[in-house]
Design goal:
About 35% of the residues lie in helices and about 25% in strands. By secondary structure, the protein is an alpha+beta fold.
C-alpha cells in the first residue's frame, strides 16, 4: 500500500470518528449556505480535522467548506460529508470523500461511509478495494455489455431539467433494464464494485466526484464528464463498467 493511500485512509479514520458521533445528534447545528445547500457543524469539523492532519505535508487542500483550488502539484480534494441532506435527516447514506490529485489527475481515492459500515479505496496501479461486514476484498466492475441489460442510477431527476436535459436522461432510462436513484457517492461506488452498471449526474462539484475517477478506473471501468472527457472537474459525471460508456454518452449528450 502506498504512503499516500495509507495517509488517505488515516484521514478517513479521523473523519469517521467525528461524523459517527454527530450523526443523529440532538444538538446538530445546521445552517444554509449561499447556494441554499445545508451545512452542519460536522461538515466543518471534519474538514478542519483533515486540514490539520495534512498541514505538515505542505500539500494543497481544496474542500467544500473551506475552499481552495486544485493547483499544479499535489492537492487533496475533500468533501467532508457527501450526502449532507441524508446526514441531517438521519438517513445513513452519506460519506467522506478524499482524493489526492497530482497535476490535475486523481491518483488516490477513499470513500468512507461509516453509518453503512462501508469503505472503498483505490490508488493508481494498485487496484480498487472495499471493506464491509464480509471483510476486505478487491472489487471490479460488471461485465454487462448491453444497455438493455444495464442497471442505471442518478441523484436527482430535477437536476437534469435545470442543468442538462431531462429528455436525454430519460432516453438513457428507456434504453436500460432498470433504474434507481441511489444518488451521490453510493452510485459510483456501486458501479466500481459491479452492483450496478451506469451512474450519471447532471451537476457535480470537483469534491463530489474526485475519488471516483481513480476508484472506477482501478476497478476496470470508465469515468468522465458528460462530454466524454476523463476529468472530475467538468461539472457533471458519468461512471460505467466501460463497455457501456460510449453507448450511454451517445444517448445522454445534449441534443
Amino acid at each position: 500500500m502506498s504512503t499516500d493511500l495509507t495517509l488517505a485512509l488515516r484521514l478517513a479514520d479521523a473523519a469517521d470518528a467525528i461524523t459517527t458521533t454527530r450523526f443523529r445528534a440532538r444538538d446538530l447545528v445546521v445552517e444554509r449556505k449561499p447556494d441554499r445547500t445545508p451545512v452542519t457543524d460536522a461538515d466543518v469539523a471534519v474538514e478542519d480535522a483533515i486540514r490539520e492532519l495534512l498541514a505538515p505535508t505542505g500539500d494543497g487542500v481544496a474542500g467544500e467548506e473551506r475552499g481552495g483550488v486544485v493547483a499544479e502539484g499535489r492537492t487533496w480534494v475533500v468533501d467532508p460529508i457527501d450526502g449532507t441532506k441524508n446526514f441531517l435527516r438521519g438517513v445513513p447514506v452519506w460519506a467522506t470523500l478524499i482524493a489526492l490529485v497530482v497535476d490535475g489527475t486523481p491518483r488516490v481515492g477513499v470513500v468512507s461511509a461509516p453509518a453503512l459500515g462501508r469503505r472503498w479505496w483505490a490508488a493508481e496501479g494498485e487496484g480498487a478495494f472495499t471493506l464491509d461486514a464480509m471483510g476486505e476484498r478487491r472489487i471490479s466492475v460488471s461485465g454487462v455489455r448491453d444497455l438493455s441489460d444495464a442497471y442505471l442510477s442518478t441523484t436527482h431527476l430535477g437536476s437534469w431539467v435545470e442543468h442538462h436535459s431531462r429528455e436525454s436522461y430519460l432516453r438513457l432510462v428507456d434504453a436500460c433494464w432498470e433504474n434507481r436513484a441511489f444518488g451521490d457517492f453510493w452510485q459510483h461506488c456501486l458501479v466500481a464494485e459491479g452492483a450496478i452498471d451506469v451512474a450519471a449526474e447532471a451537476i457535480v462539484n470537483p469534491w463530489d466526484v474526485a475519488p471516483f475517477q481513480v476508484l472506477v478506473r482501478e476497478a476496470g471501468g470508465r469515468f468522465s464528464d458528460l462530454t466524454g472527457a476523463e476529468r472530475f472537474d467538468g461539472g457533471d459525471a458519468l461512471s460505467t463498467n466501460g463497455h457501456l460508456h460510449d453507448p450511454a454518452l451517445e444517448l445522454i449528450r445534449r441534443p
